[in-house]
Amino acid sequence: MLNFAIVGYDHAHLPRYAPALAENPRVRLRALVAPGVNRTLAREDARRFGAAYLEDLESLWHGEKIDAAYIGTPPDEHLAVIGELASRGVHVLCDKPLATTLADADAILSLTQRHHVNLMVPFNPRYQLPVMRLKAMLQSGELGSLRAIHATKYGKLPSWIPGLDTRWFFDRARAGFGGFGDIGIHAVDALRWLAGSEAVRVYASIDRAVHRDIATDDIGTAIIDFENGVVACLQSGWVNPAGNPSWLSVSFEVLGTEGAALIEKPYHDLDAADEKRMDQLPWWRTDISMLVDEFIDSVETGRPPAITGSDARAALEITLAAYRSSETGQPVALPLK
Amino acid sequence: MSEYRVAILGNGGIFKLAHGPAWKRIPRAKVVATCDVVEERAVEAAREFDGAQPFTRAEDLLKRDGIDIVDICTPSDTHAPLAIQALEAGKHVICEKPMALRPSDSSRLMEVAAARKRHLFIGHTRRFDRRWVQLKEQIASGRIGEPVAVRRSERCWGGFPSSQDWHWNLEQSGGVLMDLGIHIADFFAWLLGGPVQSVYARALKVREEARETGCFDFALVQMGFPGGKRGLMEVSWTHPAAYAPFYSATEVIGTRGKLTLTDKGTAPLTVVKKEIGVPRYSTLLSSFPDTFVEELGHFLDCMEGAARPRIKASEAHQAVRVVDAAFRSIASGQPVSLP
C-alpha cells in the first residue's frame, strides 16, 4: 500500500488519474496539492476522494510519509517539483512532457537517480489494448520485419475540457509546445517503442493553421527515420472539431514484410446517438489503470518502470527536434546537439 | 452531334480495365484504330470495336486518315513522346497520367499542344471519381471551413504490380511515386487550391521485385502549401494481397471540421467466404470504368466548348514537378523547394 499525493491540478489527464488513483486498492490517496488556478476543483475532488487539500508542497511533509506522487503541474514546473519530491524519497509518476527543455529533463533524470526514486511518464498508447497487441505481434515476428508506420493522433482543443482551466496549454513557455507536441508526444513515444529503435532524423512542419484564436501551433506533420531503417510519419494536433464523436482520434498503420496491421481507434467503443450528436463511448479502456498499476509494481518491487525517464527524455528530444526542423525548414539529425 | 474517331495507343492494363470499356459506353465516339507493340494485343483490342484497325507502330497509325483523337494508354515513359508525335500529326490527345516522367518533358508537351492548337487532356481520374468529387463539393460548401491539411494513403495490396509487370522498371514507370503519387500530388493541389511549395520524401524497397529492380514500392511524401497548409501522402505497392486489391483513405482537416473517407468505412457490401480470410471491401467500390466514362465524356465536352477542363495540362505538369521533387528529396535527403 502506497501513500500517494497528487501535485498540481493543471493537466488535462487529471480528471482521469485522480479517480484512478483514488480507486486503486494499493493506493491511499492522502493529499492533493493544488495552489493553482484549478484549486476549487481540487478542493472538491479532495473531499470526494477523502484526501487532504493542500495549498503548498511544504505542507505535504507535515502529515504521514508520502511514498509516491502523480505530478500534474504545467511541465515548466516539473523540475522544481520533482527536485522537492525526489529529495524526500518520493517516487514520481510525472505526466508528459517530462520537461520543456532537454536540460531540465537531464536534471530531472539525475535527481531521481541520485535519490533512488522511480520516475515514470505515463504515455497512454503503450497501455492501449490494440497498441499492446501490435507490439506483441511485432516482437513475435508475425508481421515479418517492420518497415513503416503511419500514425495520427488528434485531440480537441484543451480549452474545451469542461471544468478545468487549461490556459497554460496555450503558453509555449509553460507547456513546451503547442498542439502538435502536446498530443503528438504520446505517439512519438509509441513510434519509438513500436520501431524498437532510436530516431536518427526528423523532418516536420508545425503551424497554427486550424484555430485562429490561440497563441501556439495546433497541427504538425513529421516524417521520422529510425536507426533500423523503419520510416514513420505522424500527423497530430488539436484538430478534432467540437462535433467529433470522440475527443481523441488515434491511428497506427503498420507495414511489415509479412503483413500489415491497422489500428483505427485506441479503445473498444460503442456509438451512442441522440437528436443532436453521436458519441463513441469506450466500454473497455485499460490504459490509465494499467499505467498506475505498472508504476506501483515498479515501486513495490524496486525495479525500473516499463516507461523510464530515459524513454520520456527520448520522446521529448524527438519532439523538440521536430519543432527545430519546422523552424529551420531542414531535417534535424538526432541525437540533438 | 459529331462522332469522334478515336485511336488507342497501348492496349494493355489500363486499356482493358478502363479506357476500352469506357469508350464503348460513349455513343459520340468511335474507336477506329488500336495499337500495341504486342501484335496480338492490338488485334484482340481491335476486335472489340466494330471495324477498328490494329497497328503495331504508332507512326503507321498516325499516317492513317480519319483519326480525331489519340488516346494514350502506353507505359508511362512513352506518354510524352507519343503525345508529341500525335499532336504534330494534327491529332487531339487524351493521355493517361502521368503526363511525363520529367517536368522538362511535360513542359515541352504543353508547348507542342499550344503551338499546334490541339487539345491536350491528361487523365487525372481522381478528379472525376464521385467519391473525391463529393469531398471537393463538401469543401466548397464551406462545411469544414478552410481546408488546411490533407492526408491520403493509396495502397495496392500485393496483387499489383505482378512480378513481370513493366511498372517495376523505374525508367518506364517512375515507380510507385509516379504511378500512384502523381494522383495524390494533383489531388492535394486540387483540394487545397494552391501550388506545392516544399516537398520532403522518404521511400523504401520492400518487395523482392523492388529490391531486385531498384524501384521504390513504398513512399511517404510531405508537402507544404502556402499559409501552413500541408499534404501527407503514403503510396504503396507492397501491402499484403489478402485484404483488398486497392485501398485508399483520405482525410481533410479544416478550420471548422474534418472529412474522412476510407474504402473500408464506406463499404456498402462486405464479402466473406468460407475459407478463413479477411473480408474484402472493395467489390462495389471500384470506380472502373464509370469514372473513365465521366472523364472521357468530359474531355469531349471540352472539345465541343460545352465545358471548361476540370484538369488542365498545366495542373498535370505541376503534379509531375511535385513527384520529380519527391525523387530529388529522396536522393538528397533534403526538402526540395518548388518556385
Report on the structure:
The complex is a heterodimer of chains A (337) and B (339). Chain A is an alpha/beta fold and 337 residues long. Chain A contains nine helices and 15 strands. Chain A is globular and about 55 Å long. Chain B is an alpha/beta fold and 339 residues long. Chain B folds into two domains: 4-126, NAD(P)-binding Rossmann-like Domain (Rossmann fold); 129-291 and 319-337, Dihydrodipicolinate Reductase, domain 2 (2-Layer Sandwich), CATH 3.30.360.10. The longest helix of chain B has 20 residues, at 313-332. Chain B starts with a strand and ends with a strand. The model of chain B has no long low-confidence stretch (mean pLDDT 91). Chain A binds chain B through residues 147-148, 150, 152, 154, 201, 203, 205, 207-212, 219, 221-223, 225, 229, 231, 233, 235, 239-241, 243-244, 253, 255, 257-260, 329-331, and chain B through 144, 148-149, 151, 153, 198, 200, 202, 204, 206, 218, 220, 222, 224, 227-230, 232, 234, 236, 238-240, 243, 251, 253-258, 333-335.
Write a brief caption for the model.
Chain A folds into two domains: 2-117, NAD(P)-binding Rossmann-like Domain (Rossmann fold, 3-Layer(aba) Sandwich); 124-287 and 316-333, Dihydrodipicolinate Reductase, domain 2.
Tag the structure with descriptive keywords.
heterodimer; A: 337 residues; alpha/beta; Rossmann fold; Dihydrodipicolinate Reductase, domain 2; 2 domains; 7-stranded mixed sheet; 6-stranded parallel sheet; 33% helix; 26% strand; B: 339 residues; 13 helices; 13 strands
Give the N-terminus to C-terminus distance of chain B in angstroms: 44 Å
Would you count the extended β strands of chain B for me? 13
Structurally, how many domains make up the residues of chain B?
Answer: 2
Q: Could you state the oligomeric state of the chains shown?
A: heterodimer
Q: Which two chains have the most extensive interface, and how many residues on each?
A: A-B, 37 and 35 residues
Superfamily (CATH H level) name of the largest domain in chain A: Dihydrodipicolinate Reductase, domain 2
Low-confidence runs of chain B: none
Q: Strand order of the main beta sheet of chain A, please?
A: 12-11-7-10-9-8-15
Per CATH, the architecture of the largest domain in chain B is 2-Layer Sandwich
The CATH homologous superfamily of the largest domain in chain B is termed: Dihydrodipicolinate Reductase, domain 2
